[in-house]
């Protein structure tokens, strides 16, 4: 990959241009920011893809408004994409940007508080008109009033330079302006020696039906590279070496959480030798799973975009009854609507994956921002005693494994399973090693094939609720199989026969049996990271808090502190050794992006003084923030 960078630079360097200084860095955090129509997500995604192909470790944080087209030039309309990449293994998108690319005054003002002193700011001076500045409350031009003296500011007329580069393209001025994000991408690609061939190929493919637009974007991209190479304002470029030591051998790709989850569902269906059926209704931030799975009919995937949330899960549950690996995807508001059908799935004891990509609430809340506030809804958000297993991935790449794990539980124990991801994982990305087929679990199931019970008079019959003694799962009988006709429905069933039953004793038995089935699900023990073995503080998390917690723990250990860490994928049931783990430590701190829901569960079940540290800002924790809190807990 290094040779690709060198060749691209040699091809685009002006003859006779002076050689510029190249500095070696271990890590960089870059944030692209502009209007939601400025293409910041595309720009960040392309820079990320090239960074992944170069071999750096990376972590990303897209952040964008909920509105499809937020008011231009306003603070609520700012869209940003943050990328942290390094020559070693990293865990978070970074606490603060080293470089901010600000496409307008709103982007500068919205993101400036996050920048440390000395950070670089590349700013599009063409957008700093009096009207644009007044719209966000700038009484004077911040590029001229001295307020940015603590930063290394690079004023660049991005719009003007883009239009000049495209003057021969034949595009109208407004269309040419839209390529300014590609000019900025070219400039940053030069600054950090990113490969260029992939982006040029991507642009030609993306705009294949409009070749003039494709070539205009490629031209703007190259012009940005050449501008960095020739302008005196950028005297230094930077190299961040591949993180070869951070990755075990294998084939890697950059992957987002939603894409990894989609691939995990497909892999689960192939390993189970079952068709995959998705019944879903579009909702942010889960819609990408529906979009992705709809592309894979060649793998036996069938997707149904329903008219509403209730129809989506109803169709999925019907597919489960028919013998498919059934999935429904949603976010918190959709879970509320699906709750009655989830209860029906508990009663019918059919495998069903309920994928909840959590977002800020309540109600519509913050549709494009992250949160972990659906945990108690997943645990208890149904009428009656309706236990459901809960699985939560820790990183974008881990969404693949979590999907396989959730499918294993659903198919083995005949139960609906909650898979709790969130917006941070769904939209964020990281390098992911593509697994070999023989590394994937065998998820094949046996359907009921005939009678499974002999009555007192010797007649062989099929009992739909006769259970496996090890898993307590009932048989899965595909409709239409001769001799396996049986009732389904939401009214309580008689143990064994499945007939409608109002018996108090039978109801008590069935409720306790369904709970025992979930309690008995086999999950791995909690793994504790405690290098010295004598830490007094345990920090325990779940889901997407893994990266910030692990980064904070790494900082504390580097400073000589002793702290233990464990992270939960399985929240219902908890790992069998969790009580013993909690009992080893004097203090337990539980960081969550809610108001303390896991901590509440731990206190209730294990009677431990689990201390909550919470935030519900629509953003993930910062590593330094958690490190400070944990240090105070150690010293307190």
From TrEMBL:
Pfam families: PFOR_II, POR, POR_N. It comes from the Bacteria. Residues 37-224 form the Pyruvate/ketoisovalerate oxidoreductase catalytic domain. The keyword Cell membrane does not apply. Residues 1-21 are annotated as: Disordered. GO terms for molecular function: magnesium ion binding; oxidoreductase activity, acting on the aldehyde or oxo group of donors. Residues 535-601 form the Pyruvate:ferredoxin oxidoreductase core domain. Residues 279-493 form the Pyruvate flavodoxin/ferredoxin oxidoreductase pyrimidine binding domain. The keyword Oxidoreductase applies. GO terms for biological process: response to oxidative stress. Residues 1-17 have a biased composition (Polar residues). Keywords: Oxidoreductase. CDD domains: TPP_PYR_PFOR_IOR-alpha_like (cd07034). PANTHER family: 2-OXOGLUTARATE OXIDOREDUCTASE SUBUNIT KORA, PYRUVATE-FLAVODOXIN OXIDOREDUCTASE-RELATED. NCBIfam families: OAFO_sf (TIGR03710). This is 2-oxoacid:acceptor oxidoreductase subunit alpha. It comes from Streptomyces taklimakanensis. The lineage of its organism: Bacteria, Bacillati, Actinomycetota, Actinomycetes, Kitasatosporales.
């Amino acid at each position: 990959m290094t040779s690709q960078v060198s060749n691209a630079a040699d091809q685009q360097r002006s003859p006779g241009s002076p050689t510029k200084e190249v500095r070696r860095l271990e890590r960089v955090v870059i944030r692209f920011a502009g209007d939601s129509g400025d293409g910041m997500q595309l720009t960040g995604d392309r820079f990320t893809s090239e960074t992944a192909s170069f071999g750096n470790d990376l972590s990303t944080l897209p952040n964008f408004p909920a509105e499809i087209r937020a008011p231009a030039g306003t603070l609520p309309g700012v869209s940003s994409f943050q990328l942290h990449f390094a020559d070693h293994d990293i865990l978070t998108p970074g606490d603060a940007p080293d470089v901010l690319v600000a496409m307008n005054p709103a982007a500068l003002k919205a993101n400036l508080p996050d920048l440390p002193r000395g950070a670089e700011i590349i700013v599009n001076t063409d957008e700093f008109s009096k009207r644009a500045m007044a719209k966000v409350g700038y009484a004077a031009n911040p590029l001229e009033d001295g307020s940015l003296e603590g930063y290394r500011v690079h004023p660049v007329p991005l719009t003007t330079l883009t239009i000049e580069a495209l003057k021969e393209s034949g595009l109208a001025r407004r269309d040419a302006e839209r390529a300014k994000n590609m000019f900025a991408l070219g400039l940053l690609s030069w600054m950090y020696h990113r490969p260029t061939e992939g982006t040029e190929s991507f642009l030609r493919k993306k705009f294949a039906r409009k070749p003039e637009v494709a070539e205009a974007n490629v031209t703007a991209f190259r012009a940005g590279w050449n501008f960095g190479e020739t302008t005196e304002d950028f005297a230094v470029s930077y190299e961040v070496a591949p993180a070869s030591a951070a990755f075990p051998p294998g084939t890697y790709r950059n992957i987002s959480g939603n894409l990894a989850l989609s691939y995990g569902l497909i892999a689960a269906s192939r390993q189970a030798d079952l068709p995959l059926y998705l019944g879903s209704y579009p909702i942010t931030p889960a819609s990408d799973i529906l979009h992705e799975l709809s592309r894979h009919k060649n793998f036996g995937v069938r997707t149904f975009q329903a008219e509403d949330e209730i129809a989506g899960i109803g169709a999925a549950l019907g597919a489960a009854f028919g013998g498919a690996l059934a999935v429904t995807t949603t976010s918190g508001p959709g879970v509320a609507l699906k709750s009655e059908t989830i209860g029906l799935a508990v009663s019918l004891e059919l495998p069903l994956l309920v994928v909840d990509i959590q977002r800020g609430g309540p109600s519509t809340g913050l549709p494009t921002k992250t949160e972990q506030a659906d945990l108690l809804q997943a645990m208890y958000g149904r009428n009656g005693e309706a236990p459901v297993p809960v699985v939560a991935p820790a990183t974008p790449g881990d969404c693949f494994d979590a999907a396989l794990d959730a499918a294993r539980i659903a198919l083995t124990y005949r139960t609906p399973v909650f898979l709790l991801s969130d917006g941070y994982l769904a939209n964020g990305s990281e390098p992911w090693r593509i697994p070999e087929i023989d590394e994937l679990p065998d998820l094949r199931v046996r359907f009921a094939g005939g009678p499974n019970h002999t009555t007192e008079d010797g007649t062989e019959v099929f009992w739909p609720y006769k259970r496996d003694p090890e898993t307590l799962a009932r048989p899965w009988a595909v409709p239409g199989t001769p001799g396996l006709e049986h009732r389904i429905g939401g009214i309580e069933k008689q143990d064994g026969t499945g007939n409608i039953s109002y018996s108090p004793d039978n109801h008590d038995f069935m409720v306790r049996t369904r709970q025992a089935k979930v309690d008995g699900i086999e999950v791995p023990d909690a793994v504790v990271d405690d290098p010295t073995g004598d830490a007094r503080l345990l920090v325990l998390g779940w889901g997407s808090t893994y990266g910030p917690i692990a980064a904070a723990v790494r900082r504390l250990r580097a400073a000589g502190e002793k702290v233990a860490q464990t992270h939960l994928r399985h929240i219902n049931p908890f790992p069998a050794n969790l009580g013993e783990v909690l009992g080893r430590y004097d203090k337990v701190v539980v960081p969550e992006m809610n108001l303390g829901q896991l901590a509440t569960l731990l206190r209730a079940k294990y009677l431990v003084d689990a201390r909550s540290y919470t935030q519900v800002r629509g953003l993930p924790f910062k590593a330094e923030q958690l490190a400070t809190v944990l240090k105070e807990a150690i010293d307190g």
